[in-house]
Specification:
2 strands, homodimer, mainly alpha, 128 residues, Arc Repressor Mutant, subunit A, 2 domains, 60% helix, DNA-binding
DNA sequence: AAAAGTGTATTATTGCTATGATACACTTAA
DNA sequence: TTAAGTGTATCATAGCAATAATACACTTTT
């Protein structure tokens, strides 16, 4: 179930994008079910202490990507098909990697170097 | 030797940052020598077809990081010590990785998944 | 019927950042 | 001495993107 109380807003990134990412991540991780309904624009705005229009902007984006469906005069609903899920998955996995590799190559790093750095950094986080 | 003709400006990222990155990358890669002098603000502006103030902004940033030294009324000179070099190196290698790992973890990917994706993406580029 | 709740469209505001224009002080070379 | 070349500081401009204010049409509930 979507729990927007867990969404901690970061002041340096646009709020509406953070909402979009949050929803996608929850779908990808598997904490959301098909047909689950979202809070109303105003409810959510109150919860996050932001302007309803900011919520609307996020929801609209999600709607354009097919992740959200909004019946007339009713609350939005989460919905996805295989294709959409694949797109989300790609964005959250391979998509990440593409940018990263591009930068690493621009700096003339080798695959081995990058793998080593990556492993280090990954495990560094685990220890703590 | 620094060759700014090789710097292709990308309209979507701030020009002054591109200049800064370019210089750092050249130092890291090893195509620049200590004491090498940079073109004057105006020269470089003419070369890149931008405003001299934009060049100035880039050079000032580099100066603040200690990568550039500017004697009074003279052209700027490239200079670095061990500490600075280490910082550049870090930014261009480990620094990259830190952000990447943070995002990957936010998406609940595993190290194995990421390594596999990374290898794929890396080699995909090599084939072409 | 009225009130409160939906989403939505339009417009305004704000703030930030990149870039540009201009003028100044100084040095060097002609 | 004058002209052209340095860097630099200050201010202006422009553009964009995020957010906010407001009003509207429609349902549902009381």
């Amino acid at each position: 179930m979507l729990d927007f109380k867990k969404l901690e807003l970061n002041p340096s990134e646009p709020v509406y994008l953070q909402i979009v990412s949050f929803v996608k991540r929850q779908i990808f991780i598997g904490t959301v079910e098909q047909g689950e309904s979202l809070p109303s624009r105003r409810e959510m705005a109150a919860l996050l202490k932001i302007n309803p229009n900011t919520v609307q902007k996020a929801f609209r984006l999600l709607e354009e990507e097919g992740i959200v469906v909004t019946p007339p005069n009713a609350v939005s609903i989460i919905h996805w098909d295989e294709e959409i899920y694949a797109a989300i998955q790609k964005e959250l996995t391979a998509g990440l990697v593409v940018d990263f590799v591009a930068q690493a190559k621009a700096n003339e790093l080798t695959l081995d170097m990058v793998m080593a750095l990556l492993k280090d950094e990954w495990e560094k986080g685990d220890e703590r």
